[in-house]
From TrEMBL, chains A, B, C:
<feature type="domain" description="Aspartate/ornithine carbamoyltransferase Asp/Orn-binding">
    <location>
        <begin position="185"/>
        <end position="311"/>
    </location>
</feature>
<dbReference type="InterPro" id="IPR006132">
    <property type="entry name" value="Asp/Orn_carbamoyltranf_P-bd"/>
</dbReference>
<feature type="binding site">
    <location>
        <position position="142"/>
    </location>
    <ligand>
        <name>N(2)-succinyl-L-ornithine</name>
    </ligand>
</feature>
<feature type="binding site">
    <location>
        <position position="75"/>
    </location>
    <ligand>
        <name>carbamoyl phosphate</name>
    </ligand>
</feature>
<dbReference type="InterPro" id="IPR006130">
    <property type="entry name" value="Asp/Orn_carbamoylTrfase"/>
</dbReference>
<feature type="binding site">
    <location>
        <position position="237"/>
    </location>
    <ligand>
        <name>N(2)-succinyl-L-ornithine</name>
    </ligand>
</feature>
<feature type="domain" description="Aspartate/ornithine carbamoyltransferase carbamoyl-P binding">
    <location>
        <begin position="7"/>
        <end position="160"/>
    </location>
</feature>
<feature type="binding site" description="in other chain">
    <location>
        <begin position="273"/>
        <end position="274"/>
    </location>
    <ligand>
        <name>carbamoyl phosphate</name>
    </ligand>
</feature>
<dbReference type="Pfam" id="PF02729">
    <property type="entry name" value="OTCace_N"/>
</dbReference>
<dbReference type="Pfam" id="PF00185">
    <property type="entry name" value="OTCace"/>
</dbReference>
<feature type="binding site" description="in other chain">
    <location>
        <position position="110"/>
    </location>
    <ligand>
        <name>carbamoyl phosphate</name>
    </ligand>
</feature>
<dbReference type="InterPro" id="IPR036901">
    <property type="entry name" value="Asp/Orn_carbamoylTrfase_sf"/>
</dbReference>
<keyword id="KW-0028">Amino-acid biosynthesis</keyword>
<feature type="binding site" description="in other chain">
    <location>
        <begin position="47"/>
        <end position="50"/>
    </location>
    <ligand>
        <name>carbamoyl phosphate</name>
    </ligand>
</feature>
<dbReference type="InterPro" id="IPR006131">
    <property type="entry name" value="Asp_carbamoyltransf_Asp/Orn-bd"/>
</dbReference>
<keyword id="KW-0808">Transferase</keyword>
<feature type="binding site">
    <location>
        <position position="277"/>
    </location>
    <ligand>
        <name>N(2)-succinyl-L-ornithine</name>
    </ligand>
</feature>
């Protein structure tokens, strides 16, 4: 593993899950492994959980994390090759990536999509530039189209909570929101769930089809009730339209997940990546009840990041 | 001691003061005590002295401090139970507190009052939510109505500077300001000074009476000259009106503390929590003269925080 | 060396260069030297490279760096003595410097010029105040008129890249920009290059003469082609007018450095302090070609800071 920006293969996925669970039992067991190493955590967009869980993960391994918030006004990066930089951007990504590469042993980067230019977003350009010009291992802390550390934490949580021998039924359900939300979490959840060999049903209102590159192999079902029947894991997430790019096509409150929505899924565990808008995406009764795995997912973010950093230290 | 959000009792107060003075002599004496522990320092409002002194205190004990500035636009916490979160708040305090509780061994939180809704402010709701949902020890870095680490530093400073056997005369005097300032420092200073068994005189223009929950037992005197007579310690602080909640009722410059105000208090030491507005609250001559204990108070912030973190590590 | 805010003398300059090159070979060789020490890095203006390189340098020496971003709204420092602070400033520099001095073993400070009041800027008032009131060693992370850590890194880079016995020809050339840029980097580059005994040619459009306090001894040449002839090191930098203070007098694109500009300087190495505006100050062909020492300068920032901190630890 040279970088960690997306799902690669099932074997690697399982190795990462197993290593994460080892660390969860004994977070400091590899405290000496990263001594003298540094990870630069670059945020082109704000972060709370991701930032802290990555810092803790690094620190558990003896790696020194340094956080750079480049989302504040005045440090806009130029992305286009050959551009005459006589406008708002102050530094070219080539130059910034090369400097950061010379300062750190490893880089972790968050960069959200514009949600206005689909072609630019789906090429995940910023990550390929950092990989190319930094010369160091790059970890995605959420890109325009993927959030692999979240998805790894999600798979760890599913793995821990599978109670029966049979294949679990995993459902990804769209939920209402008031803002236009990126596709990254939904895309990555589909990519990892399918990649790890689980069956996946995705349910959403018409017009909310995700990029088929991520959902190929999943069952798409626009009837939420039908999709949720007998579900074992229900992942709740809003996203904006992919076809009518970045648009909000529906805020229909009947899509909010409630106990009633799960009347035919008595054993369903409910998941969400946080932050969650209560009583808009998910009802209080579920969030505060026994079905919720949400706090466990958040805690597993630490061990997901720790297993990734640990494997990158090996390579 | 399970949390540190207010004055508890005189014995505990004295234990904290004594421990702080031990640390002041040898800041690293318990360097091993907190190895492997982490404190999350959450700022819903900006901070300089409080942030740095807490970081230094933690680090002196081997505790790793991680700072989270949640005051920036875009991470507004929802405080109300049952709210449909379809407006500006992005995460419920329940969820944020639970995640932070799973990430850290201890939390330290700063949250100022609105100064617009007295009932909400005086219930110190944010702190009780963090205590309830984080499941970890919580330290107040200034709440809507209290600033106990400042007050502990103040008591340490008084303790160090008592020269005579007799009880010192402690005076809290209101000072002019151009902004509406919270009551937290004044409330806590009264709570701790009275709690530690000192006599306290509070002087302010009419209309500036503090919440009696904090000032019960103090002498209230609206004639500043009379109040200052023979004072040993004079604490200068502005606050907005509590009765006419959050309002500025006076900016009368004659309330600024000067050498002349202290003409009948030749041995008075002058205190202030900083930042201070020179020549508005306090004159240059006092700040730059020998009476000022203000820099000592600021330095004692480190040892106040260190004794609190140390005691919470024990429990 | 008690502080590091400007060029002092050639012998000290050479000592710093040599020590930096030692650290570059073995960054952790003095890992124990700064154990238990702390450096407060105070940014009144934003920073990326300077902040990170200083953190890394401190950490290489075992010194704990703590970053304070005071550039955000709400922490404006009062600079004027005797001022009645009833306006926007919230704390006097005297008080802030004294507190920071009591919290840290060493301070590093960034404070840009206003570019509106020349007299205030050229006196570098903020630095003299921090030196006076903090009582601790002060390092400049770029002041109104100097950027000595950048210049030390530049001299290290020149030192590493001198190929021949003869004196190199060093040229500082003005470049176009769309913003009014401070003189600090240009001033300091001149001060250090001349101070280290190199010959220096400075070329710029008329009206862009730098403060003679920094350029005395340099050859001033308004014909860029003539200035660049046979150059060994070409330092590219924009600055605003000093005489017509802070004004942009030219954006003439013919001043951008390109391969063509260097047609009579076949062996020229090109330098820039970053961030660089591509195809405005410097062409892509140079930045991406073999002449560029720019990434080396950025990397040398770490060792420049490390040698300075190390020498201040000795004193």
């Amino acid at each position: 593993m040279n970088h960690f920006t997306k799902f690669d293969n099932k074997e690697l996925g399982q190795t990462l899950i197993d290593l994460a669970l080892d660390y969860k039992k004994d977070p400091r067991k590899d405290q000496q492994k990263g001594q003298g190493k540094r990870i630069g955590c670059v945020f082109l967009n704000p972060s709370l959980r991701t930032r802290v869980s990555t810092q803790l993960a690094a620190s558990n391994l003896g790696v020194e994390p340094i956080v750079l918030n480049m989302d504040k006004e005045g440090w806009a990066l130029e992305m286009r090759d050959g551009e005459i930089m006589n406008k708002g951007t102050v530094e070219h990504i080539k130059d910034a990536a090369a400097v950061l590469g010379s300062y750190f042993d490893m880089l972790a980067i968050r960069a959200f999509p514009s949600l206005t230019n689909r072609e630019e977003d789906i090429n995940d350009f910023i990550f390929s530039q950092f990989v190319k010009y930094s010369g160091k291992p790059v970890i995605s802390l959420e890109s325009a189209i993927r959030h692999p550390l979240q998805s790894l934490a999600d798979q760890i949580t599913i793995h821990e909570n599978i109670k029966e021998k049979r294949q679990p039924k995993v459902v990804l359900t769209w939920a209402p929101h008031i803002k236009a939300i990126p596709h990254a979490v939904a895309n990555s959840f589909a990519e990892w769930t399918l990649g790890m060999g689980h069956s996946l049903t995705i349910t959403h209102p018409e017009g909310y089809e995700l990029d088929v590159r991520f959902t190929k192999g999943a069952t798409i079902e626009t009837d939420q009730n039908k999709a949720l029947e007998d579900a074992d894991f229900v992942y709740v997430k809003n996203w904006s339209s992919f076809n009518d790019y970045g648009k909000i096509l529906s805020t229909d409150p009947s899509w909010m997940l409630t106990e009633k929505s799960l009347s035919k899924a008595p054993n369903a565990n409910v998941m969400h990546c946080l932050p969650v808008r209560r009583n808009l995406e998910l009802s209080d009764e579920i969030l505060d009840g026994n079905r919720s795995l949400i706090q466990k997912q958040a805690e597993n973010r630490i061990y997901a990041a720790q297993s990734v950093i640990s494997m990158l230290l090996d390579s």
